[in-house]
TrEMBL record:
Record CDD domains: arch_bact_SO_family_Moco
Gene3D superfamilies recorded: Oxidoreductase, molybdopterin-binding domain
Oxidoreductase molybdopterin-binding domain ranges (all copies): 57-200
Name the record gives this protein: DMSO/TMAO reductase YedYZ molybdopterin-dependent catalytic subunit
SUPFAM superfamilies to which the protein is assigned, alphabetical: Oxidoreductase molybdopterin-binding domain (SSF56524)
InterPro entries: OxRdtase_Mopterin-bd_dom, OxRdtase_Mopterin-bd_sf
Length: 218
């Protein structure tokens, strides 16, 4: 009976145990040798290209909000002050865009997706996440990928506030998947019971998007 289950057997603790056992998200610069660092078909760039649908919403911090809802025990709506009170972390990771550019060593600061999931408590039925941007963009990914150890809701890049063109005030960064999964201008994180395609996925992009497996198109 569900009532009798110890808290150790929640969806998230089970998932964390699985993640730890499989060592699944030891991606990026830490775990890969130099020769394996650049995924197949990618080339390195030094600049940081801007790619989006052509609408770059201007969300003032005073009206910025981010919801985390769907299949969770405790839905959350954060304003900017609320976001700032969450524990922040710094991570350095690489970007791999499906249009074949990669950019190494980006220093991010933000809130880890795991910290956020701890707050909302995903229900057992939650298997995937739909991300909604203020520009109307959507993208989907499996919950386990969203919860990768190095995935962050980023508000700073290289020590400065994330610029509007790159998705500020807050964007997602999931380093081990192609960058289209990293939604800019994030407005809503929706936990769902069945993976379903977002904007580019409807248009033929891959449901998961692992750069090392070249999961570009489906
Ligand atoms: N909200 C939103 N997020 C988005 C997009 C978008 O159009 N809207 N484009 C995606 C794509 S296709 C890419 S490659 C990256 C580009 O991020 P950048 O402009 O910071 O390089 O953002 C992703 N996240
Ligand atoms: Mo992209």
């Amino acid at each position: 009976m569900a009532e009798d289950l110890p808290p150790q057997d929640s969806k998230l603790t089970r998932s964390k145990r699985d993640w730890a056992e499989s060592g699944k998200f030891l991606t990026g610069r830490v775990a890969r040798s130099d020769s394996e660092r650049l995924p197949p078909g990618q080339h390195l760039v030094k600049n940081w290209p801007v790619l989006d649908l052509g609408r770059q919403p201007d969300i003032g911090l005073h009206r910025w909000k981010m919801a985390v809802d769907g299949l969770v025990e405790r839905p959350l709506s954060l304003n900017w002050d609320g976001f700032l009170t969450l524990p922040h972390e710094e991570r350095v990771s690489d970007i791999h865009c499906v249009t074949t550019w990669s950019r190494y060593d980006n220093r991010w600061k933000g809130v880890s997706t795991r910290a956020l999931l701890d707050l909302v408590e995903p229900r057992d039925e939650a298997v995937a996440v739909m991300l909604h941007g203020y520009d109307g963009y959507t993208t989907n990914l499996p919950l386990s990928d969203f919860a990768a150890a190095d995935a962050l809701l980023v508000r700073e890049w290289e020590g400065k506030p994330l610029t509007r063109e790159h998705g500020g005030p807050v964007r997602l960064v999931v380093p081990h998947l192609y960058f289209w999964k990293s939604a800019k201008w994030i407005a809503r994180i929706e936990l769902i019971g069945r993976d379903k395609p977002g904007f580019w996925e409807v248009n033929g992009y891959h449901m998961r998007g692992d750069p090392w497996a070249e999961e570009r198109y489906s």
